[in-house]
Amino acid sequence: MQRDPRAFLWDVRDSALAIQSFTGGMDVTAYEGNAMAQAAVERKFEIIGEALNQLSKLDAAIAARIPDLPQIVAFRNQLIHGYATVSVGTVWNITRSALPALLDSVQVLLDELG
């Protein structure tokens, strides 16, 4: 049985909200000093990347509406496989600059899909 594409979007939304919760009230210095927060955020980014990778295989039309999807999947691969070192600062910057837009675009799709 094929998984509902919305399930992947829910995974993305839930993980993005968790990242925002984990880092709420932190600045970059606090984040750099908190190994547990770093591990939790990286794990949630891995889930986001995997969910979007699976979504792109299941429903290319929906996946195409996610801005920067290939870069998000590539970021996941870097985190998991270590193709390139990902600095704590890079993860922080993505959390602050790119994550809110991803969350917004996923929520629009979820609202449309019911």
Class from helix and strand fractions: mainly alpha
Mean pLDDT: 95
Report strand %.
under 5%
Helix content: over 70%
Unreliable residue stretches: none
The end-to-end distance, rounded to whole angstroms, is 20 Å
Q: How many DSSP H or I helices?
A: 7
Oligomer: single chain
Spell the H/E element sequence. Answer: HHHHHHH
User: Shape from CA axes?
Assistant: globular
Strand tally, please? 0
Biggest sheet record: none
Number of domains: 1
Rg measurement, Å: 14 Å
Question: Can you tell me about this structure?
Answer:
The chain has 114 residues and is an all-alpha fold. The chain has one domain (5-113). The chain is 79% helix and 0% strand. It has helices at residues 5-23, 28-32, 35-58, 60-63, 69-81, 88-97, 99-113. The longest helix is centred in the middle third of the chain and has 24 residues, at 35-58. The protein is globular, with a radius of gyration of 14 Å.
Give a summary of the structure in a few sentences.
The protein has 114 residues and is mainly alpha-helical. The chain has helices at residues 5-23, 28-32, 35-58, 60-63, 69-81, 88-97, 99-113.
How would you describe this structure in keywords?
114 residues, mainly alpha
Secondary structure: elements and pairs:
Elements lengths: L4 H19 L4 H5 L2 H24 L1 H4 L5 H13 L6 H10 L1 H15 L1
Helix pairs in contact: 1-3, 1-7, 3-5
